[in-house]
Model the fold of this input.
Amino acid sequence: MIRLRAPAKLNLYLRVLGRRPDGYHELETLVERIDLADELTFTPQARGLTVTCDDPTLDCGPSNLVTKAASLLQQTFRVSDGAAIHLAKRIPIAAGLGGGSSDAAATLLGLTRLWNLRRSPEQLMELAAQVGSDAPLFLSIHSPFVVGRGRGERCEPLAGPFPPLWHVLVVPPERLSTKEIYDGFDRRERVLTEPAASLSMCLHALRNGSLGELAKGLFNDLEPEAIRRCPVITEIRTHLRTSGCPGVSVSGSGSAVFGLCEDAEHARRAAATLSSSAPAEWRIHLVRTDSSYEAL
Ligand code: C5P
Done:
């Protein structure tokens, strides 16, 4: 049996550069993997794929990214063996945290090991991109910080080491569809001015450990549309600001919002304050940069 963690991500920076002929959007994004993670177990079975999950709201059928990744790998490498995959879901669903994509990436890694497949990293990246735009980001396991370009699938892991960042993550109950957020983004009139923040600003801040600069660099083009569909995000932003977070942003297409904290102690205090003052239906997580992708 093989067990793997599948970490969530935050988008520290996400700029939409334009719409592509294939309907996807050209992106420039800086992603941080965090220590909030799903857990997957892979067990050999004679044939066929069985996917189960401890969250009854999650469909484990053909639309599930774990099932998609497993079937794709099985077909591509003509594997006759089967596998039973169990997903312990910890990452909130449809919140912009990349949980499904990370599960898919972990499935490719886990089954490659279980079935002893000989494959190149490029082959795996290509399969991941077929499952979802974000999935390749989670295969770049040697650095927790990755720059994504194209539709997100062209990945460049950043050479570290980097000191961990600390965050308070707030997830309201509203689930947002990535496709609908992009569609809404297209319908909105674009402001043609360049944002004050830039990817190079974020990268410079990360390399120099400058939290103030990183806080100013946080940016997400999808945030206005996420707020339009989930207005409570504005209230969450205010709570995080009041807790002293120097930077606050929506992750991906939302609805999760994170606050950048000064250090571990600040993050603990901010998470405790929010837990006692925020509406009970908000999920509050204290999270940090992921430093241990490997098996449990
Ligand atoms: O690739 P994935 O299936 O995760 O994307 C979900 C949806 O998000 C796509 O169907 C597309 O509408 C939108 N998307 C996009 N541009 C991207 C990534 C996703 O328009 N770069």
Remarks:
- The CA atoms of residues 10 and 32 lie 5 Å apart.
- The radius of gyration is 19 Å.
